[in-house]
Amino acid sequence: MTKRDTSQGVLAGLPHGAEVVLPRGASLILEHAIGGQIDLRSGTIWLTEPGRPRDVFLRDGQRWVLGSDDRVVLTAWTPSRVRVAGPAAATRGGHPR
């Protein structure tokens, strides 16, 4: 698992299994990550995914499976720790778990 501090700006193209620390207001951009799993370890993030009628807020312990292969933006509303994993073997519904 790789840890990165994003206080320097926006990241793109993270390796699968990366764990990221996002300060409040920082963003993380994921591209071509369909089926990828977002695990929010702590904090609150705002997730914008193309093709979804609404944006999503994830809170401590929630999980989201990406249903889009387009650019997905995660923005920290509070200091947050996020794990980005490869495609989930189970359902790809894109709902918080």
Features:
single chain; 97 residues; mainly beta; Jelly Rolls; 5-stranded mixed β-sheet; 4-stranded antiparallel β-sheet; 42% strand; disordered N terminus; disordered C terminus
In short:
With 97 residues, the chain is mainly β. The protein contains no helices and 9 strands.
Write the layout of secondary structure elements.
Blueprint: E1 3-5, E2 18-22, E3 27-30, E4 37-42, E5 44-48, E6 56-59, E7 63-65, E8 72-76, E9 80-85
Parallel strand pairs: 1-2
Antiparallel strand pairs: 2-9, 3-8, 4-7, 4-9, 5-6, 5-8
Structural description of this entry:
By secondary structure, the chain is mainly beta. The chain has a single domain, classed as Jelly Rolls. The protein contains no helices and nine strands. It has strands at residues 3-5, 18-22, 27-30, 37-42, 44-48, 56-59, 63-65, 72-76, 80-85. Strands 1-2-9-4-7 form a five-stranded mixed beta sheet, with no helix packed on it. A four-stranded antiparallel beta sheet has the order 3-8-5-6, with no helix packed on it. Strand 5 and strand 6 form a beta hairpin. Residues 1-12 and 89-95 have low confidence and may be disordered.
Large-scale geometry: globular
Number of self-contained structural domains? 1
Classify the helix fraction into a percent range. under 10%
CATH topology: Jelly Rolls
Average pLDDT, to the nearest integer? 79
Q: Radius of gyration over alpha carbons?
A: 12 Å
Backbone structural class = mainly beta
Unreliably modeled segments: 1-12, 89-95
- Biggest sheet statistics: 5 strands, mixed
Give the number of helices.
0
CATH homologous superfamily placement: Jelly Rolls
The total beta strand count reads: 9
CATH architecture: Sandwich
